[in-house]
Design a protein that fits this description.
Strand content: under 5%
Order of helices and strands: HHHHHHHH
Radius of gyration: 40 Å
Pfam families: SPACA9
Protein name: SACA9 protein
Distance between the termini: 90 Å
Number of domains: 1
Largest sheet: none
Number of strands: 0
Shape: elongated
Number of helices: 8
Length: about 240
């Protein structure tokens, strides 16, 4: 699980760098869409961004920022696959956000209606026309995926504490039963009689009751010792 968290942290650093280049990213999409004569259509999928890079990108700066976007998408898809590989198919259905991530990461999935909400501000950094008609979905795509994956990692971490580990072939590994604890032997005397455990007070009472010359009142059952009538001289 720590390995997955570290990979998510690396992706977040790339996303932070990409956010700083959002204006460059929009400009690159504008130029490539103009060459493709698609300025009236919104950017609706990651496959469309890939097409802009492969067929219509002629600028090194544009190529670099579009490649960074697609690299982040690839890393997010790889992280999703690693999370799924940690658990069985039944367990993956219990992890919140994974199914939504799989749907969104489909290269042909329509992103045009996606909108990242607060605290994300990617949409707010666009003009009203750009946000509403062209780029609101594509700039919201990565923040939404990140939110789902973070929730998925938290749910997977909770599930890992109760679920069995997955071995090769996707089978759950059953843990061996612990060895039976040997019963504690009962102390016996030399004659074979079972000795009972006694507390300190019980031992003292037992000794006083069976002490032939003891002067404790316990020897007389709580009554004073018998004396002959009359005056007894002390020597």
């Amino acid at each position: 699980m720590e390995k997955l968290k570290n990979k998510l942290s690396v992706i977040q650093q790339k996303v932070l760098r990409f956010r700083q280049q959002q204006f460059t990213f929009i400009t690159a999409l504008e130029r490539t869409r103009e060459r493709a004569q698609q300025r009236t259509k919104p950017i609706s999928s990651t496959a469309q961004v890939q097409c802009c890079l492969d067929e219509y990108c002629q600028n090194a700066t544009d190529r670099r920022v579009l490649s960074l976007f697609l690299e982040i998408v690839h890393d997010l898809s790889g992280l999703l696959q690693q999370i799924e590989s940690q658990f069985t198919a039944a367990s993956n259905q219990q992890i919140e956000g994974l199914e939504e991530c799989k749907r969104l990461l489909n290269p042909n999935n329509d992103l045009s209606r996606l909108r990242a909400r607060y605290p994300h501000d990617e949409v707010n950094r666009l003009s009203c026309d750009e946000a509403r008609n062209y780029y609101g979905g594509v700039v919201s795509f990565i923040p939404i995926i990140l939110d789902h994956l973070q929730q998925g990692l938290l749910a997977a971490e909770r599930l890992q504490k109760t679920a069995k580990p997955v071995g090769e072939g996707g089978n759950e590994v059953t843990s061996e039963k612990p060895d039976a604890v040997a019963p504690v032997s009962t102390p016996r005397s030399r004659s074979g009689r079972v000795l009972k455990k006694t507390t300190g007070t019980q031992s003292l009472l037992h000794c006083n009751l069976h002490k032939p010359n003891g002067h404790s009142e316990l020897w007389h059952g709580g009554k004073p010792a018998w004396r002959p009538p009359g005056r007894t001289n002390k020597f």
